[in-house]
Design a protein that fits this description.
- The chain has a two-stranded antiparallel sheet with strand order 1-2.
- The model is unreliable at 40-45 (pLDDT under 50).
- The chain is elongated.
- It is 63% helix and 6% strand.
- The chain has 210 residues and is mostly helical.
- The chain has helices spanning 2-6, 9-37, 93-127, 134-167, 180-209; strands at 49-54, 83-88.
Amino acid sequence: MDGTRGNDPLRTLELLVGVIVSLMALLAGLVLLGTIVGTGTIPGVNAEVCASTAGDAPAFRRAEGDSTGPVGLGEGITWRADEVQICDPDPDGGTRALAAVGLVVWAGAPLLFFSLLWRLLRRARREGVFADRVPGGLRTLGRILVAWAVLDFFVSGLVDAALLTRMTDSTVILSGDVPWLPVLVGVTLLALARVIAQAVDLRRDAEATI
């Protein structure tokens, strides 16, 4: 019995995901605490709020006389900043609130995903990989990832634009990067859920013939 439990790959995955969920919750809590009430005096709990923008966006301007950029470039070599971070070391309440909204979207969905994955692994170990509720759990995980990708695309763009508007006097263009990895993993989980659902139907048919 002990040897079987020791060779159970789902148990190893369950423990690993459980550790990931705990670390993510701790890290997200510290960062959120720093964003809302941080003063910069506590190590790891920083009050600084930053927003990202494309280097060629109107919000990114180089002051006259600045020599920003790499040094020692060879002849004919050029450089460009694809992305720039603008930070406020002493943000006010509105800036902190915007940063907190972005953080909740950025960290909340992954934390929810891994928490549900941990619960699904426990259920699969207890009831079997082809249990009736496993396909539904996989569909839920896939939908969460796809929904998070869409929400992150729109909310992160709006939050960054709002933060840049507060930090600069330039006209800010809304922009955002599509998080393709969550989309691809979510679609894969949805497809896997269909496969597992067919396997569950085959298991039920086999049980009915016995």
